[in-house]
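Box 3.1 A note on notation
Throughout this textbook, protein chains are presented in two layers. The first layer is the amino acid sequence; the second is a token string describing backbone geometry. Keep the layers aligned when reading.
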Amino acid sequence: MFTQSPGEGLSPVNAVSEGEDKHLFLFGYDVVNYFTDNTHKAGDPAIKSVYKGVTFRFATAEHKKMFDMAPEKFIPQFGGYCTNGIVYGIPWGGNANSWAMIDGKVYIFGGQGAKDAFLLDPKGNMALANKYWSEEMNGSNAFWQRSKRMVFRVPHYKTSEALAAEVAKAKAEGKLL
């Protein structure tokens, strides 16, 4: 419950506890690698930095150096949670291998279905994600926020099935690749 809410300025975050790393960001994937190699890559447990109480791992010493010089540039938006989940006020999920670079920033998704659902209306969904992140989530406890929004849904809430149907329709019509 507290692993994702370290409370030192990066809360909540998509983090796990692994060994001595109590707040390991994005399962230890190298956040700089998205920018340098345009892909996800696991970080080396021996090459890491702690920023605002959160541990980040890197594939190379050069990536660590780049991160240490400008950490905010490389940290995925919305604490590394599924961006489409944030649209619904739910900080949950987020896989290092499902991501998009939008306006020079990395956004993580819970899988291809969540990414496709977000891309049905990227501008509108980004506005909603920014709204819920700034008004409800940033600095909060992920567990409590998730619990609240699983009971008290946002007005525009759609089930996974409804979103999947919209994605399938958009793909069939050639509106989504």
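The two ends are 37 Å apart (CA to CA). Residues 28 and 42 are 6 Å apart (CA to CA).
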